[in-house]
Amino acid sequence: MESKVKTAVVGCGMISNIYIKNLKNLFHIIDLVAVGDVNHAAAEEKAKTYGIGRVMMIDEIAASEDIELVINLTPAFVHHDVIKRMLLAGKHVWTEKTMTVTVEDARELVELADRKGLYLGVAPDTVLGAGLQTARRALDTDLIGTVSSGLAVINRNQSLNAEVYTFLRGNGGSLPYDVGVYYIAALLSLLGPVKSVHAFGTPAKQHVPEFLYKNAETSPWQIPGSNVMSASLQFASGALVSVLFDGNTVNAEQHALALFGSRGILKLGDPNGFNGSVSLIYAGQPECTLPFSHGYDGMNTVEATPFDFYGHRGIGVAEMAWAIRKGRPNRCSKEYGLHCLEVLAGMEESAATGSTVEISSRFEMKPLAPGYYSGFGGGRGDAERSLMD
Ligand SMILES: NC(=O)c1ccc[n+]([C@@H]2O[C@H](COP(=O)([O-])OP(=O)(O)OC[C@H]3O[C@@H](n4cnc5c(N)ncnc54)[C@H](O)[C@@H]3O)[C@@H](O)[C@H]2O)c1
Question: Which residues line ligand 1 (CB under 6 A)?
């Protein structure tokens, strides 16, 4: 059996809870040995809560001899700094989305990782979950024929959310970057690369604080970039997909994700989770929900916590750790992360210039092997075997 990959988490905020819990409990291949944060107290707290042996300064993690893999869970606008520092220190890196907030920065990191021969994996890893892998299998086994078009819709009140999650007020906090990325990632995992985009955008509202908590701020702010985006994506496969991301409305999500094919239609659930349902629609037949063909359905059965809603976040890290040991490419690769970002930035550029933007980067993502399940054996099942090859 391959040796475990010694791993550290950098950034001990909200999302680190589910990462740490999953990485400690679900995967043979990961040995989570350390946590670090610029806010040392936050790292101390996670180490105590989850029983992690070492709390380290960021420099100490970079300089450590034994840590091979660093998981970056900091806000998007500091990703470039943290990732670059860890790559330069010779560490493999997994980062939360988006890889960076500019395409130029992401390209620099891709080149750096290539030069150093290091892995750089990028969220969303929801694309490796049961819902989207089942959808991928439906496409790969030709259940709906050739996909000619699709639809992706998500809405929120992003300015109100930014009142609570203050990092959303910075670059990378607009609805397309923060949440739309899950829809783009899902489409990429199912249809492959995008060839060109054309979009219209509207900025976020100037947000006047609404909450009256102690220490509430009083001065207004505005999330940077387009917070409403209406776009057309032309995939290299020829499929045309209509995208609507609206962060200027209410927090009552009306998500939609569908692919229309020459023989049938696939209707998908929320791609921001691991268990989005997959419905098959044929003409003249009742709609039919497909059973999941893969594990990692987001149902976390190891000691319930308030963060279980975030499902199986961390499978992308485990899949990358297996890739490191087996010497093969990882699925949520740096090329996939760069392409996600280039599509989002392409929409922004098209909205600003009125021109169609060509997307130059390319990536490949192999599906996971079907037939493994994670719903028994205390939440582990045999699903980790599907991450090995
Ligand atoms: N909150 C969510 O629902 C959610 C879901 C999925 C993914 N994400 C992504 O995960 C990342 C973190 O989100 P979060 O909600 O945990 O944010 P958070 O603000 O709760 O936590 C971020 C942590 O990073 C630390 N940090 C900031 N700069 C740092 C630096 N230079 N070096 C080390 N630590 C640093 C902060 O002190 C903080 O503890 C973001 O990229 C976000 O997009 C968040």
Answer: 10-16, 37-39, 42, 58, 73-76, 78, 82, 96-97, 167
